[in-house]
Model the fold of this input.
Amino acid sequence: MERNSFLKLVKNYKAVFLDSYGVLKTHHGLIKGVENTLDLLRSQGIRFKILTNDASRSRQQQVEKFNELGLTGLTTEEIITSGTLARHFIEDKNLQGSIAYLGTDSAASYILQSGRKSISIKEVDLENCDDIAGFVFLDDEGFDWNTDINKTINLLRIKNIPVVVANSDKLYPVSFRDVAVGTGGIAKLVENILGRKFIHFGKPDSQMFVYAYNLLSPSQDFSKNDILMVGDTLQTDILGGNKFGLRTALVLTGNTSNRKADMLISSTGIIPDYICESITS
Amino acid sequence: MERNSFLKLVKNYKAVFLDSYGVLKTHHGLIKGVENTLDLLRSQGIRFKILTNDASRSRQQQVEKFNELGLTGLTTEEIITSGTLARHFIEDKNLQGSIAYLGTDSAASYILQSGRKSISIKEVDLENCDDIAGFVFLDDEGFDWNTDINKTINLLRIKNIPVVVANSDKLYPVSFRDVAVGTGGIAKLVENILGRKFIHFGKPDSQMFVYAYNLLSPSQDFSKNDILMVGDTLQTDILGGNKFGLRTALVLTGNTSNRKADMLISSTGIIPDYICESITS
Amino acid sequence: MERNSFLKLVKNYKAVFLDSYGVLKTHHGLIKGVENTLDLLRSQGIRFKILTNDASRSRQQQVEKFNELGLTGLTTEEIITSGTLARHFIEDKNLQGSIAYLGTDSAASYILQSGRKSISIKEVDLENCDDIAGFVFLDDEGFDWNTDINKTINLLRIKNIPVVVANSDKLYPVSFRDVAVGTGGIAKLVENILGRKFIHFGKPDSQMFVYAYNLLSPSQDFSKNDILMVGDTLQTDILGGNKFGLRTALVLTGNTSNRKADMLISSTGIIPDYICESITS
Amino acid sequence: MERNSFLKLVKNYKAVFLDSYGVLKTHHGLIKGVENTLDLLRSQGIRFKILTNDASRSRQQQVEKFNELGLTGLTTEEIITSGTLARHFIEDKNLQGSIAYLGTDSAASYILQSGRKSISIKEVDLENCDDIAGFVFLDDEGFDWNTDINKTINLLRIKNIPVVVANSDKLYPVSFRDVAVGTGGIAKLVENILGRKFIHFGKPDSQMFVYAYNLLSPSQDFSKNDILMVGDTLQTDILGGNKFGLRTALVLTGNTSNRKADMLISSTGIIPDYICESITS
Done:
C-alpha cells in the first residue's frame, strides 16, 4: 500500500483518535515531534482524544506521566483509558458486595473508588468469600503470580460472579527487545482454563470508541466520517476503528514495522484506510 | 437462580430491548400473550426496541412479517436488525467500487441500496474482479453452497478487501427439532480457512446496542441503568447486554430451557441479572 | 535457513516418508524428475512410503492415478492414506448398526466395506435413524452442500455417536489460483457449531506415522532417526513428522514458496530440520 | 448410559491401560480397594500399564510414591509418564547445544539426563543465549512465575527453537476444592501469546498410547481390541483411547462425577464404550 503524509491527511478530518504507545511514545520516551503535531491539531481546531488500553494509571496519572516525558498541556478529558471504561461499568453495575481484584492497590483505588468495598486477591479467604460480588483483572503487578493466579481460578470456580478485564492487551513492550504478559494475557489464561468468557475493556472492543465519540460529540455534531483513528497495531487500533466505522491510519513507529506492514495487512485481512510513517510528517 | 416475574420487573425500567426469536416468537408463531405485554409497555410509557440478528429482511419486511403473525402496530423505528447496522457501516465506509455478496438479491437490494454497484458472488468473474471493493456475507440463501462458498474463498484470497458479516449468528432454528447453519457460521468457516478476521454485526457485539441506545435517547436522557435487555440466548443477548452495561433478563421461551438454564449460566460464566419464565407473566 | 540438496541428504537415511501433493505432483501433473528420485531411492535400498491426507480414493485407485500421471511401479503397500486409517479404525471399533456418511458412494464403498451397513446422509431419515451407530466425514463431494451439511448437524444433535473425519485437511488446491474447502473444513464447521470434538485422521495426527512406521519396520529394525519425513506443508507434514520424532525436510515445490518459507517457519514456530528446493535435486 | 461392573468387564480383555489420578488415587490417597483390583489383574494374567500425564517425577519416583501410599509391587516398567516420552523425544532429536527449561532441577535431571547440557530459565542470559538449542516446559514449580514466564516468552521471541511440553495438562487438582495451573496451562499461555504451536506430550495425544502398546506387545501379539483404556477424564483418557482405537471405560472416582457424566458425554461428544463406578467393583 501507498504511504501517506499524516500532516496532510489529517486536515480532512474534524477529529483524531490517537493510540498512545507506538504513536506518541515508545520505550525510548516521547517520539520526536509529536508536540508539534498536537500543537498543529490544536491550532487548526482539529480535536483529539488519546485512547489507550491501560488500567494501571488514572487519567490524571497519565497526564502527569506525559508531562514527565515532556508532553505538556494535555488534559484528563483528552485521555481515555480502558480502566476508565471498566470503572464506569462497575459503577453502573451496582454490585451488592465486595469486588475482588488482581492488580495493584493503586489501580484498585481509582477503578473501584467511591466508597465501594474492594479486596485484593491476596487477602481473599476462600473459606469465607460469600461477600464477594465481582472480580476485576486490573494489572499484571501488585500480586504474586506463583500463588494468586491459582487463587483467582479457585475463587472463580466457587463463585459465579461477573468478571471484568480492565485492559485486554495480552502483551506489552518493556524495552526494545523485551515484552511482558499483560492483564489481558493472564485473564485469557484463566478464561481458557475455566471455559468462561469475561467482559473485556479496551480496543478493539467498541466501548472505548463509543465513549470517546460521545465525549467528543455529545450533541452528535460530528459524523463518524469526520474522525480518523490512528494506531500502530492492526489487531486493536485498526480493527477497532474499522469496526466502529471510522477511517483508520496505521503508523509505523510502533508494533508494525515498515518492512512487515504489507505482509501483516494481507495475512490478517485488517486493512487500514491509510498508512503513514508517523504522526510527525 | 431465582425466577422473576417479567411484568413486575419491567416496571422498574424506562425502556426494554427485546430479542425477537425466542422472546416474541418461535417456529410455532407468536408466543401467546406477547401482544398484551407490548400493549402494557406502551400504556405505561415504557419504550421498547426489538434487536434482532437478521440481515435477510428490511425493517419494513420485519414489520410485515410480525403483522402476518398477528402482532400489529409495530413501527420500523422499533425494530433494529444487524442488517441495518451493516448497511450504515457500508454507506459510511464509502468504498470506491462494487460490493460482492453471498446471499439473496433481495437482502442485497436493501443493504447495498442507494445506487451502489453490487454483484452476487454467483456473477463474479474471478479473472476480472478488479472493480470489487468490498464483500458482505448477507444470508445463507440465494446461492449454491456447492460452488459459491469456494468461490468466495478464492475471491478473498485474490482481493484483500473489507469483509462484513451482516448477521453473526452461526445457527438458527427452523423447526422444533431442526437447526440450520446461518450466515455467521459460513463466515466463520471462511475466516477459519483464510486466517482472517471479518467485521461482524449483531449481538453480542455492541454496535447494535449503541445504535438502539442513541435512537432511544438522542439527548442522553436515559441512563443505561434505565434499560433492561431481554433475550433467550446467553452468548448473544445476555453477554452483549452485560457488556454494554445494561441490566439483563434471560427468558426461558427459546434457546435456553428451564432445565438447563442454571447449568449453562454456571458453565459459561455469562450471568443474567434476572431469569423470567417469559415476557408474558 | 540454509537450503539442502535432497539427493545428498537422503543418503543418510534408511527410509523416507513422502507427502504426495506438492512433493510428487501438483495441479500441473507429476513434478518433473520425481521418477528418477524414486528410482534412485529404490536402487540405493532406501525404502519409502507415500503418506497422503486423502479419503476419496482407495490405495489401488491412488496407484492407478499415479500411473496415469506417468509415475509407474508404485505398489499399494507404498501408499498410506488417511482414509486407510479411518477404515481400520471403524473396523476395529466394531459399531453395532449402520454408518452414515457425508461423501461419495465410491469412497464409502472402500472405507466402509466388508459387509458393513452404510447410508449416505442424503438417504438418512431423521425421523427414523435409530439404527445409525456412527458417522464419517469422507469427502467434499457426493452430496448437496445446500441441504446435507444441515442434515448432518441435525443428525448429530439427535444421535450422540462416534464421528470420524477421514481426511482432516481443511483446504486443498484445485488449480494454480484456486482452492476448495476439504472434508476437514466441513467437519471443523460442524464441530464448531456443535461444540464437539470428532476423531480426525491424517497428518499432523500421529496415527498415520505410527501405521507407516509399523509397516516399514514390523520387527522394529528401523529407528525413528533412520527416517526422513518430506513435505511441503508446515502444519501437517513437518509438525506431524517433528512430533512423531522423525527428521523433517520441507520442500518448496508446493504450499510453501521459497520466498515465504523463512517467514512462515519463524511465525509458526514449526521448524523443519532441513529445507530442500525439491526432491529432484 | 448404563453403568458396568469393571471387574466383570475387564475379564474380556488381555490388557488394561490405567490413568493414575482419579482412577488409582485421589488427593485423599489411594482409592480403597485398588490393590485388590491390581492383584486380580495379575492373578488372571491381565497385563496393565499406568499412563499418566506427569513430568515432575521419574518412573522410579512414581513407584516410590505409590509405595508410600500403600500400593506396593509396581515396577517402573508398569508406569509410563508423559515425561518419559518427552525424554525419548529429546534424546532422539539430538539437538546440538543446551536445552533451557521451565521447571524444577530435579525434573530436568531425569528428563534431560545423559550428559546433555541444560539450563534453567532462571539462569538464562538473554544477551548471551546463542548456545540454546531447545526448550522444555517441565513443571509448574521450580521457578518464579513473576519473572520467568516473561523471560521464557522473550527467549522464544529471540530464538526459534524446538519447544517441548512434557505434560500437556492445563490444570491439576490439589485438594477437594482447589486446582492449580499445570505446565500445559503455562505452555498454552505462551503459545497463545507467541502464536506458535509447541510439541505436547501426554494424553490425549497418541504417543503415550503408541509407546505403551509397543511396550506391551513388542511382537504385536495383542490387537488393539484386546486392550481397555480406563480413565476419569473425557478430554484426555477417553478421547485419547478412542482415537488410538482402544475400547474405553470412564470411571466416576475422579474428574467426572456420576451426576454430570451423561451431560458431559453428550455435550462434548466424547463417548466411552463403558461407564464404571470405579475399578474396584
Q: What stands out?
A: Chain D touches chain C at residues 88-89, 92-94, 156, 160-163, 194-199, 205-207, 210, 214, 218-220, 223-225, 235, 239, 242-245, 265-271 (CB under 8 Å). Residues 6-53+204-276 of chain D form a domain with the Rossmann fold fold (CATH 3.40.50.1000).
